[in-house]
Automatic annotation (TrEMBL):
GO molecular function: isomerase activity
Xylose isomerase-like TIM barrel domain mapped to chain residues: 24-277
Protein name: Sugar phosphate isomerase/epimerase
Feature: compositional bias, Low complexity: 285-301
Domain of life: Bacteria
Region (Disordered): 283-307
Name of a matching Pfam family: AP_endonuc_2
Keyword Cytoplasm: no
Keywords: Isomerase
Amino acid sequence: MAPLRFGYGTNGLTDLRLDDALGLLADLGYAGVGLTLDHMHLDPLAPDLAARTRRVARGLERLGLTATIETGARYVLDPRRKHGPSLLDPDPDARAARVRLLIRAVQVAADLGAHAVHCFSGVTPEGTPEDTAWQRLAEALGPVLDAASGAAVPLAIEPEPGHLLSTLADFHRLRHDLGDPQLLGLTLDIGHCQCLEPQSPADCVRAAAPWLRHVQIEDMRRGVHEHLPFGDGEIDFPPVLEALASTGYQGLTVVELPRHSHAGPQLASRSIEFLRKAATEAAHAPPRIASSRTAPAAPTPVRGGTP
C-alpha cells in the first residue's frame, strides 16, 4: 500500500501567521498543507499576488511541504454573505466574481506546484429551479476547467452537505453533464461521507478512487454536519486509511477543522499522532473481506451549517 501523506488546513490555523503555521506543520512532521486563499494568509484579492505567492513557494520548498489550494474562505469575496457569491448566484456578475477567484486559485496552485484546487458548488438560491442551478454550475465551471487544463492543475470539487452538489452521486451528475473532462476531479471529505452518504466512509473512498484528487479528513457524526477532532465523532479511521492507501492515492489527506483555530497548534499535534497510529493499525489489519453492507440512510435534514 502507498504511504499516505498527511496535511493540515490553514483554515484551522487562522490565529497564526502563515509562516508560523507552515513552520509548525513542518516541525510536527506533516507532508503538506491545505492552503485556503483568505485575507489572513495568502489574500487572493490583495496587490502583488504573484510576488507573494513566490515567497510562499520558497517557504514551502525550504520546509519540504507540498500544498493543495482550498477556496472555502467564508468572506473573501463578500464581507456580508458567508461563502458568497457562489457559482449558483442569480446575478451573472456575482457568479463571474467566483469564477475569477477560482481561475486565480488555479494560477496560484500552478505557481506553488500544488496538486489540486478545491472548490464547491454553493447552496441553491431560494426560488431557483434545480435544473437551472445545475446549468449555472456547469456553465460557470467551463472557464475554470479551461484554466485548469492550461495549467495542468486538477480541479477537485467537493460534495458539501446542504449544497446543490452534496453527494458522490451529484458529482457524477456534474461529471456527465460536462462530458467527463479530464481535469475535473473530486475532493472527498471523510466526515461528509459519515454525515450523509449511504455507504461507509471506507466504501466511499473505494467508490471515489478513480476521480480522487484531494481528501479532507476529520471526525463527524451521522446526520450532523459538524467537523470534530478525531475521537469526538463516530468514524472508525483505520479502515478509511486502509482504503485510501490501497487505492494508491498520492495527494494530501488534509485535516479539516475550520472552527477550531483557537486550539489549532494543539489539535495539529494531536491529529498527526492520531493519524499515524490509525495508519499503523490499518497497515497491520487482516485482509478486508468484501461486504455489501452499507450504512443506514442519513437522517433528513442534515443538521449543522457549512463550515
